[in-house]
Q: What sequence folds into this?
């Protein structure tokens, strides 16, 4: 997130200014500590059954992969005929036998978070009564777990169900409605009979919500939230650069994913008076024409997109509780029936030199790059929304992370406020893709932080700082970030007509704030409205995070506008006016305040 008010106003055009302040701890929605298990996971089942002890130790000890996972491991694995489902007595008996056979030796001793999910056709049918279908799934989780066989933490009843709706019936909308009703009824039963299991939905595969004047939003996520959202413990979504099952090629990284998430948060706040937490149960990249056959040249694109997306997720610790990079284990299922080509997104593949061995793929670079990052957030800002930034402080360690979302190199002026931090040494990691699709991933040692640097096209950097002492000797104050949501959303744009929003019940004073303005407009339409906050005109930026969205049907993204803290009141009015043409929508308006607290 860009907080321009904390930056010097004078800087060269075309050069980004990044300021990191290790003396100011950062809190977002009351959370400061980086939960590594929320971001750096495998799309792999727990307990692990594919890896040797040595391989698992490499993944969890060396690469420090989190103990979060996702697998197709629910009731669908029983393979029952949905038209002839077993009764409760039969399932209770069969479940007891399964528990007795369970080997608990591979269950991690540390806390872990597993999302169990299903292929829609294994659990859902429009031809079977919903009571019977939901009883079947409820009885599975009630009777097939217990003793040394622990429940998964989360259950996502169907994987990407709505893009499969036409496989069940030609009436797409009717199927989506029935699928939503299935989620709602099942969640009620699971909460009553299996209270330890959190229910998640609906794993939105194609969040192209602005398409058809937000018709996709209305017919998918909004419909699901209206029917089943109240009964969900978490909402879930998949975010991919590229194309996911439907639609044109488009990057979610940057402003587009921010607008998607702000839209969901805003409607959640409007509907329930609070923001329902979310899981990003898959994220990464896929492409038009991509198959699932392994191609090494695609791995750099996958790692790059994951770097991009996770930078945004880290800015929502109060909302995004778990995210799963779509990097799988060995995916041995792909190698059955004589097929020798590995799965595209696997972290380990059959060795190319040892017929009986396995080797890790270059997708490990995502985890290796981030493996040491830990601690509490500290303040860091960028003058350019295309330069995403994060910073953290821990005992004897500091971390500054930069990610270039732009498709060209960027010069950066770097300023760091270290306070009483006595630096012992610095390790700089640099990762980027060459024009020939090869990857440069290098590590070098520094004695001090640079004051200027060049960020390669779509490159990533981490400065790992070693210092003497503890954060308490460095941190002098805390900056608290909180979000406040407007009272309306998805309002139409008419030429020379103000679009009005109110942001009420803003509880705290603020030194500075950011107005997050999300828009959908046709190509060629202005993205620079006149914006007034409590009557004061705000400066509207020329740029936004990520690519220009030229290949999309519409622009849909978030702009960040600086708001002086002195303008903020308990009740606030935002006025937005476009003078170029009718058309488009203001999808959401969110005020993020930043307030300094002394320890």
A:
């Amino acid at each position: 997130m860009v907080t321009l008010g904390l930056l010097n106003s004078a800087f060269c055009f075309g050069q980004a200014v990044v300021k990191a302040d290790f003396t100011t701890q950062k809190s977002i929605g009351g959370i400061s500590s980086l939960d590594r298990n929320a971001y750096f996971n495998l799309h792999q089942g727990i307990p692990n059954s594919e890896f040797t002890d040595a391989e698992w130790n490499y993944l969890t000890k060396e690469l420090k992969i989190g103990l979060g996972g996702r697998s197709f491991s629910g009731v669908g694995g029983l393979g029952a005929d949905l038209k002839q489902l077993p009764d409760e007595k039969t399932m209770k008996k069969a479940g007891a036998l399964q528990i007795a056979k369970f080997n608990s030796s591979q269950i991690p001793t540390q806390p872990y978070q597993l999302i169990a999910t299903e292929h829609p056709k294994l659990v859902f049918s429009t031809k079977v009564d919903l009571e019977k279908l939901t009883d079947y799934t409820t009885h599975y989780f009630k009777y097939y777990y217990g003793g040394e066989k622990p429940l998964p933490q989360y259950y996502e009843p169907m994987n990407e169900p709505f893009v499969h709706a036409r496989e069940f019936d030609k009436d797409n909308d009717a199927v989506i409605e029935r699928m939503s009703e299935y989620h709602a009824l099942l969640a009620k039963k699971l909460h009553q009979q299996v209270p330890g299991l959190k229910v998640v939905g609906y794993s939105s595969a194609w969040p192209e919500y602005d398409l058809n004047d937000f018709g996709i939003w209305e017919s998918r996520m909004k419909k699901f939230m209206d029917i089943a959202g109240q009964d969900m413990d978490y909402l879930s979504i998949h975010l991919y650069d590229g194309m996911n099952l439907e639609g044109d090629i488009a990057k979610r990284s940057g402003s587009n994913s921010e607008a998607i998430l702000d839209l969901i948060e805003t409607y959640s706040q409007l509907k329930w008076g609070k923001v329902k937490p979310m899981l990003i149960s898959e994220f990464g990249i896929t492409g038009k024409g991509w198959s699932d056959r392994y191609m090494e040249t695609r791995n750099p694109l996958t790692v790059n997109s994951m770097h991009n997306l996770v930078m945004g997720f880290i800015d929502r610790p109060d909302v995004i509780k778990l995210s799963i990079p779509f990097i799988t284990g060995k995916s041995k299922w792909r190698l059955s029936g004589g097929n020798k080509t590995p799965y595209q997104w696997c972290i380990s593949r059959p060795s190319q030199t040892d017929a009986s061995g396995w080797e890790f793929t270059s997708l490990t670079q995502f985890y290796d790059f981030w493996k040491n990052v830990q601690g509490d957030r500290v303040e860091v800002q960028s003058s350019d929304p295309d330069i995403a930034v994060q910073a953290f402080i821990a005992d004897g360690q500091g971390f500054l992370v930069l990610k270039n979302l732009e498709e060209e190199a960027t010069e950066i002026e770097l300023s760091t406020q270290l306070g009483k931090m006595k630096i012992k040494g610095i390790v700089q990691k640099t990762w980027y893709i060459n024009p020939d699709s090869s990857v440069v991933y290098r590590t070098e040692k520094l004695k001090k932080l640079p004051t200027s640097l060049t960020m390669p096209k779509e490159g990533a950097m981490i400065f790992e700082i070693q210092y003497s002492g503890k954060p308490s000797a460095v941190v002098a104050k805390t900056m608290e970030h909180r979000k406040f949501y407007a009272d309306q959303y998805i309002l139409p744009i008419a030429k020379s007509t103000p679009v009005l929003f109110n942001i009420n019940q803003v509880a705290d004073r603020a030194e500075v704030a950011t107005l997050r303005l999300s828009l959908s407009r046709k190509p060629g339409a202005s993205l620079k409205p006149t914006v007034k906050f409590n009557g004061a005109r705000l400066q509207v930026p020329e740029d936004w995070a990520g690519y220009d969205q030229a290949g999309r049907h519409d622009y849909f993204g978030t702009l960040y506008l600086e708001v002086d803290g002195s303008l903020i009141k308990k009740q606030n009015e935002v006025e937005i006016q476009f003078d170029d043409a009718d058309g488009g929508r203001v999808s959401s308006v969110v005020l993020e305040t930043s307030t300094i607290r002394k320890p």
User: Anything to note?
Assistant: The longest strand covers residues 15-28. The chain has three domains: 4-28+374-473, 36-100+109-370, 477-597. The domain at 477-597 is CATH 2.60.120.1200 (Jelly Rolls). The CA atoms of residues 99 and 556 lie 49 Å apart.
